[in-house]
Structures are given as structure tokens and as C-alpha cells.
Design a protein that fits this description.
Blueprint lengths: L2 H39 L6 H21 L2 H9 L5 H19 L3 E3 L14 H24 L6 H17 L6 H34 L4 H28 L8 H27 L6 H5 L3 H36 L5 E3 L2 H28 L6 H21 L5 H33 L5 H13 L2 H14 L7 H10 L7 H33 L2
Antiparallel strand pairs: 1-2
Helix pairs in contact: 1-2, 1-12, 2-5, 2-11, 2-12, 3-4, 3-12, 3-13, 4-11, 4-12, 5-6, 5-11, 5-18, 6-18, 7-8, 7-13, 7-14, 8-9, 8-11, 8-13, 11-12, 11-13, 13-14
Length: 523
């Protein structure tokens, strides 16, 4: 046997051990949930055993949320190398748990987004089966999506599952079909709005900083303003979303408080950024370092808001089951027992630690190349899109916003690179027959010029020279040569396909699981 074969076997063995270790830790957590629920909550009453089973599934669901959904908050920061993978996981785990426990609220709607009418469900027992099937189906779909490296919406997963199980339990009349229109709309609204806002910020940064001859001076003026805007956006975002369950404020109040925090942040950081700028080189790489600390704060705050809001996707159905098992009735809202919130918070942290790196790498580096400026724009998009959506009542998904932002900055870079390549080719075409030194000198001056100066140089060039006579085929060939794809198309297809099928697939699985439970109980 060759040494290379032995090395391959050792690598495969090591991977197998890692996978076994992760699986073992996950199983230990689920077993711990089972033991705690059995010993502390108890299995007495007609629904005691079902509550224990639901608690185990809730823990499994929480781990899958941590493995898949949290990547959107920290992936861009990791991909831009603003923070290491380990650092991002630690920060996200801490702030996800803090958001869930501090601002997760004490009451949750028993049916997420009112997707089904609980009154259409025949009995409490059927309702518990329904929610158990929805939890399991949503968790299984998230697990599958994570295995394929596709970041999907946890909210859509559980909504589809509740819808499917609800129709299986109460027929088509149990579904509130009117609310589905908003969910379908969010498939388009979230990524498009996130992508447009992220691309808009990146273009603004390029125009005001990186396209300037003196980038350091431009950064000294603009970076404090950008960070102040980030402070405004995240303060407003946290009040509207992250703290909404413990501190209710109106939209105008949130904007006013956010504006004050933004102005104070700008004023406090202006001097320190100016001092740091004096030590920087006049290069894009050097300017990028000014965005590192804001990105770390953004990752932490996004994780806090995610923990406060999306933990309901894990514990909401479990809390509904616990309330139904306790009271014997189905209510529109249910109190969240502390142990249920702990299952969600700890499960999300464990799922992130065990399986989060795969999706973090997908979002951070496998769609398009990110640096700190681009990651900053994605973080801004995540906060501002939610603010805009809150004002207009638009349904949005945090996962779709973040991934849409990644695609937005990637496609903008593609457009800019291709446009620049076309300009260079146009310059070469107009200089046809000129000395090589003349062409290179013009290209050098063109590359150093600002955007406005580039436009003037091209206009002057067209005014004093005649364009070479090229056929349409030759023009097409030139454009093909200079076309640069900076966004991985296979990732785009995979992610969009996963988004589209999330609701129907989780719904079909939930209906099948419901019928399986129903069949076993009545066998």
C-alpha cells in the first residue's frame, strides 16, 4: 500500500471521528432535554409523554436553526477576515443566547404568522400532534439544507410545516390562505431589497473613498459618517425587532433614538478615526481595516436580534404544546416557560458550534469574494431593509436579506469590472496603430483618474479620434473576453432553488409525519 493511500485513509478516518463526535454531542443534548423534561416537568397527565417527545424535537429544531440560520449574521464578517471563524462562533453563540433569554419575550403566538386557524383543529390531542409534526418536519428540512450548504429561512421552514400539518389535521379550510401571499412576496422582496441596499452602499463607498486619488483623506471624512449611519441603523433595528418583546416603541420614536445614537457615535469616533487614518497607506487594503471593529459589533448585534426573534421558531411550537398539555385547551397565545426558552437558546448555540462553520463559509466566501467594505454594506443592508419593511408592512426574511446582500455586492462588482474592461478595450481601439508606450501611458493615467476624470478622458478621446471599424461579431467576442463572473452561478441556482421549495417541501413532510403519528396512535 502506498503512503498516499495511508494518508487518505487517515484523513477519512479523522473526518469520520469528527462527524461522530458532533453527532454524539447533539444526541447528548437531545437526551439531556428528554431527561430534564421527564424529571422536572413530568410525564403525568394525558399528554405528558407527548410533551417529552416534543421537547426533544424542539431541541433538535433549535440545533438546526443554529447550524443554518446564524451563518447569515456572521458569515460576511468571517469571509472578509474581519474576525476569525472561532471568534465569530463564540460571539454569535453568546449573543444568540443573550437575545433569546433577555429579549425573547414571555408569550408567543401558538400558530406562527396565523397561518392556520386553531379553531379548525378537532381536539387538543390533534393540535399537539400537528405542532409536533411541524417541529420535526421543519427541523429535518433545515438539516437537509445545511447538509447541502444552502442557507434557508427558518421562518419559512416552520410556516410551511405548520401549514402542511394543519391541512392534514383540519383540511384545506384550516389554512389562512390570504397570509400565504405575503410569504410568497417575501421570497422576492427580501433578497431584492437586501441586494439593492447593499449594492447602493458599496457604490457610495467606491465613489466617495476608493475611487478618490487620496483615499486616506476621503476615508477620514466618510468613515465616521458611515459608522454613524450604522449606529443609527442598528439602534433603530434593535428597538423595532431585537427588543420589541420587552420594550415597545413606535416607529418614529425608534428613528429618533437611533438618530441621536448615530450622531453621538459619529462625534465620538471622528477624532480617533482621523488619528488612525494618519498611519494608513493610501491603498484599498489599508482603508479596509477601518471597518473591522464596526463589523464585529454588527455581527454581535445581528446575532442578538436573531436570538430574540427567531428563537420563537424553535420554542414557539414547543411552548404551544406545553400550554395545550398543561391546560388541555388550544389558545391563540402561550406563555414560554423558562425551561422551554433554555432549550431553544442552548440548542441554537450547540448547533452553531457543531455545524455552523459550513454555512458560515458558504455565506462568507463561497458566493463571492468579500472584504471589510463589502461586508459592512451587507450588514447595513440587513438592518436598513428590516427598518424599511417595518414601515411599509412588508414581509421579509433575515436569511434572504443577508444572502441577497451578498449577491448584490457581487453583481455590482461584476458590472463595474465589466464596464471598466469595456472602457479599456475602447481606449485600445481608439489608439489602434499608436505606439505601445502611448497606449500604456494613457491607460496608466486612466487607471489613476477619478470617476469624473475617467468620463472626461473618454469623451475627449471620442471627440479627437475615430472609432475603429469593428463588426458586431468582433465586438461580441471582445466583450466575452472581458466578461468577469465574480458571483458563483452554481451557488445562486442552489440557494434560490432551496428558497423556492422550502415551504412546499416542509409542508409535505409535516403532513406525512402527522399521518404517521395519527396512524401509530390509532393502530
Amino acid at each position: 500500500m502506498e503512503f498516499s493511500d495511508i494518508a487518505g485513509i487517515e484523513k477519512a478516518t479523522k473526518r469520520g471521528r469528527r462527524e461522530s463526535s458532533r453527532l454524539g454531542i447533539g444526541l447528548i443534548f437531545v437526551v439531556a432535554v428528554m431527561l430534564y423534561t421527564t424529571l422536572s416537568v413530568g410525564t403525568s397527565g394525558p399528554y405528558g409523554v407527548m410533551l417529552v417527545i416534543a421537547a426533544m424535537i424542539g431541541g433538535y429544531m433549535a440545533m438546526n436553526i443554529g447550524a443554518n440560520d446564524v451563518a447569515n449574521n456572521v458569515g460576511p464578517a468571517v469571509g472578509s477576515r474581519a474576525i476569525s471563524m472561532i471568534g465569530a462562533i463564540v460571539i454569535a453563540a453568546i449573543f444568540e443566547m443573550a437575545g433569546a433569554l433577555i429579549a425573547g419575550g414571555d408569550v408567543v403566538a401558538t400558530v406562527q404568522k396565523g397561518i392556520i386557524n386553531p379553531a379548525a383543529i378537532a381536539t387538543t390531542e390533534h393540535f399537539i400532534w400537528l405542532m409536533t409534526a411541524a417541529l420535526l418536519a421543519g427541523a429535518i428540512w433545515l438539516n437537509i439544507a445545511t447538509a447541502f450548504g444552502a442557507p434557508v429561512s427558518t421562518t419559512h421552514s416552520i410556516i410551511g410545516a405548520v401549514l402542511g400539518a394543519g391541512i392534514a389535521a383540519g383540511g384545506a379550510a384550516a389554512a389562512n390562505w390570504g397570509t400565504l401571499g405575503g410569504i410568497v412576496a417575501s421570497w422576492v422582496i427580501s433578497p431584492v431589497l437586501g441586494g439593492v441596499i447593499a449594492a447602493g452602499f458599496l457604490y457610495w463607498i467606491k465613489r466617495t473613498i476608493t475611487y478618490r486619488e487620496d483615499m486616506v483623506a476621503a476615508a477620514r471624512r466618510m468613515v465616521p459618517l458611515l459608522i454613524g449611519l450604522m449606529a443609527f441603523a442598528f439602534a433603530t433595528y434593535l428597538m423595532l425587532k431585537g427588543l420589541s418583546k420587552v420594550w415597545k416603541v413606535g416607529f418614529g420614536t425608534a428613528l429618533a433614538i437611533g438618530a441621536v445614537i448615530g450622531v453621538l457615535t459619529h462625534w465620538l469616533l471622528k477624532g480617533s478615526i482621523a488619528r488612525k487614518a494618519h498611519t494608513l497607506e493610501n491603498s484599498k487594503r489599508s482603508i479596509n481595516t477601518l471597518f473591522t471593529v464596526p463589523l464585529i459589533f454588527a455581527a454581535a448585534l445581528l446575532s442578538f436580534a436573531h436570538g430574540a426573534n427567531d428563537v420563537a421558531n424553535a420554542v414557539g411550537p414547543l411552548a404551544a404544546i406545553a400550554e395545550a398539555a398543561k391546560s388541555g385547551q388550544v389558545a391563540s397565545t402561550a406563555a414560554i416557560p423558562f425551561w422551554v426558552m433554555m432549550v431553544g437558546a442552548i440548542g441554537i448555540a450547540i448547533g452553531l458550534l457543531l455545524y455552523g462553520p459550513k454555512l458560515i463559509r458558504t455565506v462568507g466566501s463561497e458566493i463571492t469574494e468579500l472584504d471589510q467594505m463589502r461586508a459592512f454594506c451587507i450588514a447595513m443592508s440587513a438592518a436598513l431593509t428590516v427598518i424599511v419593511a417595518s414601515q411599509f408592512g412588508l414581509p421579509v426574511s433575515s436569511t434572504h436579506i443577508a444572502v441577497g446582500g451578498v449577491f448584490g455586492v457581487g453583481f455590482l462588482r461584476e458590472f463595474i469590472k465589466q464596464s471598466y474592461s469595456h472602457m479599456v478595450e475602447e481606449i485600445k481601439t481608439h489608439h489602434a496603430g499608436a505606439d505601445k508606450e502611448v497606449v500604456e501611458d494613457f491607460l496608466h493615467r486612466f487607471s489613476k483618474a477619478s470617476l469624473d476624470q475617467k468620463r472626461v478622458m473618454l469623451e475627449q478621446l471620442k471627440a479627437h479620434t475615430e472609432q475603429a471599424d469593428l463588426s458586431k461579431l468582433e465586438v461580441k467576442q471582445i466583450r466575452r473576453v472581458y466578461r468577469q463572473e465574480l458571483v458563483k452561478r452554481s451557488a445562486l441556482v442552489k440557494i434560490v432553488a432551496a428558497w423556492i421549495i422550502t415551504v412546499p417541501v416542509s409542508g409535505v413532510m409535516a403532513a406525512m409525519i402527522y399521518y404517521m403519528i395519527f396512524g401509530m396512535v390509532h393502530a
